[in-house]
Design brief:
Radius of gyration: 20 Å
Largest sheet: 6 strands, mixed
Shape: globular
Strand content: 5-15%
Helix content: 25-40%
Number of helices: 9
Number of strands: 10
Order of helices and strands: HEEHHEEHEEEEEEHHHHH
Distance between the termini: 47 Å
Structural class: alpha+beta
Length: 279
């Protein structure tokens, strides 16, 4: 068993979703099945969601805690080629403040509450308990890694981990505001068909949308893939009879955005699901 695989299984046992990285701290590339964004992932860099192909394809959202997946024959071969183990901080309920140079480290020591610190090749990772939107270059030499991101595993670090402070959350706010922004407006119409409705009562559709929202809300890993497959399931059942409205789509997008998906990712996933079903 490779050292990377052993580390990955140990992290997964502690509810930390893991994935392999190749040289250059980059996720492994897509397989042919995923070419052209056919599976619902991003068309560039393919960073968003495991598909049904046999390979390790999609960066942060391929991270998993399932030992059966991690030690599968396909992943075992990948671990042998891997240069490092990465993890999805948001999936583990964490935020990493990535400090890339001495100036950034000095700022953190002067401004941030003490927490667990992991040494990196160029600086430090400060780990906090709590999840937020990931963002790059929030300050010179400072990146935030949480939802929809991954960080290289460099060991457990030292110090006691503390709660994510407001000063870190505020780093992603471009203009100070006391009003928390809501989900972005839905811009993709349902594009439902006009066939005969198979639903016996409106409650059937309502129950379906409610179950879809619940499935998205309960996703703990592979969020983008869960959103895409949920959209696909809703459209395959309700997308051809004209019953879906923009209000229904808005509910699904709102649930997805509450799990860290951007409006653009929701739009891409919905459009891909429509295309796959020929709607």
């Amino acid at each position: 068993m490779s050292t990377h695989l052993t580390t990955a299984l140990d992290l997964a046992a502690r509810a930390v979703p893991v994935l392999p990285l190749r040289a250059g701290k980059l996720p492994f590339g897509n397989c042919r099945t995923c070419t052209g964004n056919a599976c619902g992932g991003r068309p560039v860099m393919k960073m968003s969601g495991p598909c049904e192909c046999p390979g390790v394809c999609h960066g942060w959202a391929a991270a998993t805690t399932d030992p059966g997946v991690i030690s599968s024959s396909t992943w075992v071969r990948t671990w042998r080629e891997a240069a490092a183990v990465a993890y999805h901080p948001g999936g583990a309920g964490l935020t990493v403040v990535d400090l890339d140079n001495a100036e950034a480290i000095a700022w953190a020591w002067a401004s941030l509450p003490a927490t667990r610190i992991v040494r990196t090749t160029r600086g430090e990772h400060w780990l906090y308990q709590g999840v937020m939107q990931s963002a790059n270059a929030v300050r010179p030499g400072v990146d935030l890694k949480s939802t929809m991101s991954y960080a290289r595993w460099l060991g457990p670090g030292t110090g006691t981990m503390t709660a994510l402070p407001d000063i870190v959350r505020a780093l992603t706010v471009k203009e100070p505001s006391t009003v928390r922004p809501g989900p972005q407006a839905v811009t993709v119409p349902a594009r439902a068909g006009s066939g005969e409705c198979r639903h016996r009562t409106p409650a059937y559709l309502e129950r379906g949308i409610g179950m879809a929202e619940q499935r998205i809300n309960e996703a703990r890993e592979a969020v983008h893939a869960t959103v895409y497959r949920t959209f696909l399931a809703v459209l395959s059942t309700h997308g051809r009879c004209g019953c879906l409205t923009d209000a229904h789509v808005a509910r699904l997008f709102t649930a997805a955005q509450a799990k860290g998906e951007s409006a653009r990712h929701c739009t891409d996933a919905w459009t891909n699901a429509l295309t796959r079903l020929g709607l």
